[in-house]
Task: structure prediction
Amino acid sequence: MKTRPGAVLALAALPLAPAPARAQGGGGRWERQIQEYLQRTTAALDQQGLQQTGELQVGVLLVDQSEWFTITMHARASYTLVAVCDNDCTGLDLVLYGTGHNEIEASRATPVPMIKVTPRATMSYRVKLTLTSCAVSPCWYGIRAYRGITPPPP
Result:
């Protein structure tokens, strides 16, 4: 399920579906930081032929707290899932799970985790985002999915 090194892929056929508890507005400068970081990420990935898919998810977490999302990905399409956090945050874990809590891919303990994957099967996948370190808790996060060009069938 992993992609070859250096290949940038994209993530999501349907919008990321968040868990019920999610921050909406009221984040002021921290939420603006998240928006700005993801705009820069989107610009860089657009230059590589990736397109946003689904909606931007923004929220707040305390250290060691997690947020779960569900995403439908299509077989043989390339996906990238990117998470960012505010200036007080120094660590996020991003983990992609298949059926039965089977870990497929992970990016851990980084302020900008990125998962790149080309699924073998079209199905719903679970994504877990965990805040691992934050100088001033809580910290704001943003997560967005990108999809690359679907290769022709073999």
Residues 15 and 54 are 3 Å apart (CA to CA). The radius of gyration is 15 Å. Strands lie at 17-18, 51-61, 66-73, 79-85, 89-97, 103-110, 114-117, 123-134, 139-147. Helices lie at 28-46.
